[in-house]
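Researcher: We're teaching a course module on how sequence relates to structure. For the next exercise, students receive a sequence and then see the predicted structure as tokens, so they can try to spot secondary structure elements on their own. Here is the exercise chain.
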Amino acid sequence: MVKPSDAALVARSRDGDSEAFRELFDRKHKRVYLIAYQVLGDVGSAEDVVQEVFLRLWQHCADYREEMPLDAWLRRIATNRAIDHWRARRAERRHFVPAGDVEAAPASGGGRGGGYGGHERGGSRDHRVPPGPEALAGWRQLQAIWDQLADLLTPQQRAAFVLREIDGLPTAAVAEALDCSPSTVRSHVAAARSTLQRELRARYPELVKGRAVS
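Model: And here is the predicted structure for the students to work with:
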């Protein structure tokens, strides 16, 4: 049986077909979650973004135009919502964390599970999790390091780095998702890479061994 296209499912959802919308959610929610988690480094916030993205899709099915692939549309909304959450969280930290305790504040996501490819919640797990307890422990360690270092980036730098270097999207697609120019994306990625390289060498020299962050 041929599966309906994304556009067909959106059209059916527009007419109130909840089963069609459920199929869209099943197809797309993992990718939306992964983008949100890598930008935010926090399981609960990433799940909030997923709910917000699909609520918006449900409410605005009539506004969706087939000339933009659904994946690109969802990626743009997920990235923007994740950045909004990131800014709100940073504002809360500045308000509640005394200046003298900034260094002691926990890195985002450090205590809430493995995140990208490394945790289970609600019965789902990313298929890229390496098998075996030792490999999984190493994967989670790398995720924790990423969460800590990425907390030093601006929201735009983090989002650009995630989409370009982790998800492997072309620069043009990242620019579309972030609503900026390709040159701005390249600037964000370069700045993020420079910060990550510097802090990785300073904090985890045993992991660097002369290699650059890519």
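Model: If you want an answer key for the exercise: The chain has a mean pLDDT of 77. Residues 6-151 form a domain with the Rna Polymerase Sigma Factor; Chain: A fold (CATH 1.10.1740.10).
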